[in-house]
């Protein structure tokens, strides 16, 4: 089960990096001439004749980002409490080693680091002009964390005298 989750996380990470790389490659090839010869400065370029639309830009700490980052932080805290509740009910953590989740301060620091990493990656995406990815990263992080917390609370308690663990 753990290896399947690791493979799934690896696939999503590779897809995410591939999307960013493809977008960067696409924007760099659009601005270059199609042939290997240098462009004639006097020639008319149809792409340059049309005025470019100004893309809507925003400040990094605008209202939507603040709400998204707050949501990520709230759901990371809920993930912390739901995992501790799940462990107290006799269940086991499937994604992290027991050494991490048994250490309250270390686990809280991990949750805070995950929130800070999400904000940091969003900032990098913002600075490189990937504003839709910037928002979608936070939306996805928030959604996945909310699902994990809800799953932790929905799991049945483990009772040592029974054969079923309620997985």
Q: List the secondary-structure elements in sequence, H or E.
A: HHHHHH
- Report the principal-axis shape: elongated
Strand content: under 5%
Range of helix content: 55-70%
CA(first)-CA(last) distance: 12 Å
Continuous helix count: 6
| Sheet with the most strands, sense and barrel status | none
Structural class, by secondary structure, is mainly alpha
What is the typical, i.e. mean, pLDDT? Answer: 78
Rg (CA only): 23 Å
Give a quick summary of the entry:
With 167 residues, this protein is mostly helical.
Description:
This protein has 167 residues and is an all-alpha fold. Helices cover 67% and strands 0% of the residues. The protein has helices spanning 2-30, 46-49, 63-88, 98-102, 104-127, 131-154.
Topology:
Layout lengths: L1 H29 L15 H4 L13 H26 L9 H5 L1 H24 L3 H24 L13
Helix pairs in contact: 3-5, 3-6, 5-6
What structural keywords apply?
6 helices; 167 residues; elongated; 67% helix; mainly alpha
